[in-house]
């Protein structure tokens, strides 16, 4: 406290000179290098104050703090643009998914600029870099035996002539009876759902009754990673950086045993799956979207791996 009072009394003249901004911001040997991301806001709506407070504002505050400390700081973010929520909103507005994303990406960028959120780069996930990096990660997983193929029963709407992705179907939750549960999760009880488990399912597009139809998909073989993941979690939990809530949720998943997780969808709006027999499918958004942090950085600088594959700095 005495030191803080002394520095405060000396005034701004005693502070070190501010860093001269560099473009692009890259890690520097011997300095503290800080990469900051905030949760990618979904692109199918106009952001409101709650979105900003819950999403980008805390990261912006921390980025400003880091720069005041003269740490070498890069702050990136961008709009999350793939997934069925984009498709459903595009249908409602009579636009293509690309047109919808272009419109709302510009709206998001304007809103954050008005609030003076201090991004070094605000990008988006629908880019060639996203496709390249996501497909590369997929090929690495495939080569290392962490993917498997299996038949998945899906709801198909014969009237629309399409398989119904999670958000294109609604019905009654099989766990709590909530009448408007989505095909991936119940918003009332929070449980994950497979769409075929819904009672009284309805196609959101035509309100017809879909039928269960088998189709081939690719799964992330999570059980293969369970032992290594548990060992890693024990080490990181011991460091004390996880909240009690985060530890509880993670323990619950491990207690029940990890299951293979489907990472492909019968859609057209998404990153294409680069594998024969599955080229008419795209990656599930929750496989694809987290890779957006990497691809947005890659759109900022072609030396993006110096941030993402450089733990020594």
Give a nutshell description of this structure.
Helices cover 37% and strands 18% of the residues. By secondary structure, the protein is of the alpha+beta class. The strands form 4 sheets. Strands 5-4-9-10 form a 4-stranded antiparallel beta sheet, with no helix packed on it. Strands 1-2-3 form a 3-stranded parallel beta sheet, sandwiched between helices. The protein has a 3-stranded antiparallel beta sheet with strand order 7-6-8, with no helix packed on it.
Q: How would you sum up this structure, described in words?
A:
The protein is an alpha+beta fold and 313 residues long. Among the domains are: 22-139 and 285-309, Rossmann fold; 155-212, Methionyl-trna Synthetase, domain 2, CATH 2.170.220.10. It has helices at residues 2-10, 49-55, 57-68, 84-93, 97-114, 128-143, 226-238, 244-256, 285-288, 292-300, 305-308, and strands at residues 33-37, 72-79, 121-124, 147-157, 162-163, 169-172, 181-182, 199-203, 211-220, 261-262, 264-265, 282-283. The strands form 4 sheets. The chain has a 4-stranded antiparallel beta sheet, with no helix packed on it. A 3-stranded parallel beta sheet has the order 1-2-3, sandwiched between helices. A 3-stranded antiparallel beta sheet has the order 7-6-8, with no helix packed on it. Helix 4 packs across helix 5 (97-114). The longest helix has 18 residues, at 97-114. The chain starts with a helix and ends in a 5-residue tail after the last helix. The mean pLDDT is 92.
